[in-house]
Design a protein that fits this description.
The protein is α+β, with helices and mostly antiparallel strands. The protein contains four helices and eleven strands; from the N terminus they run αβαββββββββββαα. The protein has a five-stranded mixed beta barrel. Strands 1-11 form a two-stranded parallel sheet. The longest helix has 13 residues. 31% of the residues are buried.
């Protein structure tokens, strides 16, 4: 009887589950929205509280060394400041699902665009491709860990870029610009 009562109360006061999915972006759209596409390495980062919309949120600023320009405009500087949502200030942390997580010392291909006096990763995690070494010690682009659930992923940037070596990615990006 108790189990049935608790179950009935749970149904009566339950709320529908909510989730969100992002639309997968094509390589051409990612290139078109990005000011710079680079192979970069995060050097250091700091997080601060900022007003985003109507509320305060934690924002992280990462200093990224531009190792190689793969597309877009040449930034004409060796280091760029990249802004991402989420991070840790003191004992408080904020995780923004779908945002790129730039890890210090982890080289990646980054698509970036201007945002509030810095740069932000274009299309959040869809513009972030960390490099990993395969079994043959060849560096390949991998999908950002935060680019999880995407709608219409077939043929999108996350599928076309994942697994490529940097020179192959550069060729794909050059082809996308010519279209």
């Amino acid at each position: 009887m108790r189990v049935a009562t608790v179950g009935a109360l749970g149904l009566a006061f339950s709320r529908p589950a909510e989730a969100s999915l992002a639309r997968a972006v094509q390589v051409e759209e990612l290139m078109g929205r990005s000011q710079h596409v680079m192979l970069g390495e995060p050097l250091d980062a700091y997080s601060v509280w900022e007003k985003v919309g109507q509320r305060k949120h934690i924002v992280t600023y990462t200093r990224v060394r531009a190792l190689e320009v793969l597309g877009g405009a040449d930034p004409k500087q060796d280091e760029l400041l990249v802004r991402t949502l989420g991070g840790r200030v003191g004992e408080l942390g904020e995780l923004v699902h779908g945002e790129a997580l730039l890890t210090l010392g982890e080289r990646s291909v980054l698509f970036v665009m201007p945002a509030r006096g810095a740069l932000s990763v274009t299309a959040m995690a869809q513009g972030h491709y960390p490099l990993v070494r395969d079994a043959s010690s060849v560096e390949r682009l991998r999908r950002s860990p935060e680019a999880k659930e995407l709608l219409n992923e077939q043929g999108a940037a996350v599928q076309r870029l994942t697994g490529l070596r940097v020179p192959e990615a550069r060729t794909l990006l050059e082809t996308a610009v010519r279209k």
